[in-house]
Design goal:
Layout: E1 4-9, H1 12-19, E2 29-32, E3 39-42, H2 44-48, H3 61-67, E4 70-73, H4 76-93, E5 97-101, E6 104-108, H5 115-130, E7 134-139, H6 142-154, E8 161-163, H7 169-176, H8 189-197, H9 203-207, H10 211-218, H11 220-229, E9 247-257, H12 260-280, E10 283-294, E11 305-316, H13 319-333, E12 340-348, E13 351-352, H14 367-383
Parallel strand pairs: 2-4, 7-8
Antiparallel strand pairs: 1-6, 1-7, 2-3, 5-6, 9-12, 10-11, 10-12, 10-13
Helix pairs in contact: 4-5, 10-11, 12-13
Length: 423
């Protein structure tokens, strides 16, 4: 019998901030989005105060001051490194692991004795090694393990671990009847509303639906969800590191920009990061998609949104080749005098480096350039992102994000490594 476990870190971003700062262990804390705009993560204490996810920071400043809430700028370097450490721990504990998101992983526990006990061991081991508390949900399908994880987190009597296989059908039916369909993996708010209109209100209702009828009305994806809720495994583990079909790098500016050099610097930084990701998965791309727009919420400004698809002369992962294409695209869509809010790039038509269709007459990347790119990636990985970079990324710093209260890079920068002093 196939058995899946979903290991999901609790309040991951907020927890990462607290791991290296014991003084705020029990303090309500929120993590803000890029440019310190909205709340994207909350500690348990912040949730207890009723602070909603996605709330604009400026609307809650007075509340935070009155209740002692700490607001931290997002530190994705720290979160990414902590995520990698957590994944490494899980891979040591289980031979088959799928990294589903930055704080979630599916494990295949077929053949393990005392599955529930092992789930408790996994939770304790992660807590001991990196001080991150996880919920562990166990079930015969990925969808049921995801639902079990939700129960493990919401119902404290289970101690953070819930195994569907430990409970009878009657008990599971009673639990499913307590939760709306929106708590099912893959059923969003809009779909949940449509299901409600058809009289399907709870998880139990959905599990009891006719799978064929669901497919005819809602499609094959929801049909698989119904079957999985009944214990029929339709979704297998996916390989870790599966190459992405598209790579996007995009970010809002700290303030609106008029200076073309500032916009060029931002775009150059985005294309450098995207190219680095492309090489990391040993791929090349065939075109670069350039995007630029003004702020749609500043109605007093002239509104402008434009995109440009720039084909490459040959599939490439060379930052210089991609940079040239991106800048050509920007020149064609940039309008002087406008106040720009955001720019970005998307790499498309991605293929694996060793699986390209050869063209007798097309150019190829210079092997010396590829070695140079590999060297840059190695230096940046060891010394920190941006240590080596293209000159045009430094044309201006005006585009950089607001991050007034960003924590140090505790685990990835020697200069910011935490130090303990003895009295």
């Amino acid at each position: 019998m196939t058995i899946y476990a979903l290991v999901d870190a609790n309040n991951f971003y907020a927890t990462c901030e607290k791991v290296f700062n014991p003084a705020i262990t029990h303090t309500p804390l929120v993590v803000l989005s890029n440019n310190d705009g909205c709340i994207v993560a909350r500690s348990a204490e912040a949730k207890d105060l009723g602070i909603p996810m996605g709330a604009p920071m400026h609307e809650w400043k007075d509340f935070f001051a009155a209740h002692g809430v700490i607001a931290m700028s997002s530190n994705y370097t720290l979160y990414g490194d902590m995520s990698a450490r957590m994944l490494s721990l899980l891979q040591d504990l289980c031979p088959e692991v799928e990294s589903y998101s930055i704080d979630e992983s599916f494990l295949k526990l077929d053949g393990f004795p005392d599955i529930t006990g092992y789930g408790r061991y996994i939770r304790a081991h992660v807590q001991q090694c990196i001080k991150v508390t996880c919920g562990v949900g166990i079930g015969p399908t990925k969808t049921l393990s995801k639902f079990a994880n939700h129960i493990a987190k919401k119902r404290h009597e289970y101690g953070g671990v819930f195994n569907c296989l430990d409970h009878s059908e009657a008990v599971m039916a009673e639990i499913m009847a307590d939760y709306p369909t929106s708590e099912v993996w893959g059923v969003g708010r809009r779909l949940s509303k449509h299901l409600s209109e058809d009289g399907i209100e709870t998880v139990l209702d959905l599990a009891h639906c006719d799978a064929v009828a669901i497919r005819q009305r809602y499609g094959i994806v929801l049909e698989k969800t119904v079957r999985e809720l009944r214990g029929e495994s339709c979704l297998s583990l996916e390989a870790i590191g599966r190459p992405k079909d598209q790579i996007i790098a995009s970010r809002s500016f700290a303030t609106t920009l008029i200076d073309p050099n500032a916009v060029k610097a931002a775009l150059a930084s985005h294309i450098s990061r995207a190219a680095e990701k492309l090489r990391a998965q040993e791929s090349v791309c065939a075109h670069v998609y350039v995007m630029i727009n003004t702020n749609p919420f500043r109605t007093q400004d002239q509104q402008y949104r434009k995109t440009m698809l720039v084909p490459l002369p040959h599939p490439s992962a060379d930052t210089a080749v991609l940079m040239n294409a991106a800048m050509n695209g920007l020149r064609k869509i940039f309008m002087p005098g406008l106040r720009y809010h955001k720019c970005g790039v998307m790499l498309g038509e991605i293929s694996q480096t060793d699986r390209q269709q050869s063209d007798l007459f097309a150019a190829v990347d210079d092997p010396k350039r590829l070695r140079l790119m590999s060297l840059m990636d190695s230096v940046n990985k060891a010394q920190g992102s941006g240590t080596l970079h293209m000159a045009n990324t430094g044309l201006s710093a005006a585009w950089h994000m607001r991050n007034a209260n960003k924590s140090p890079h505790y685990t990835t920068c020697w200069d910011e490594f935490p130090v303990a002093y003895a009295n």
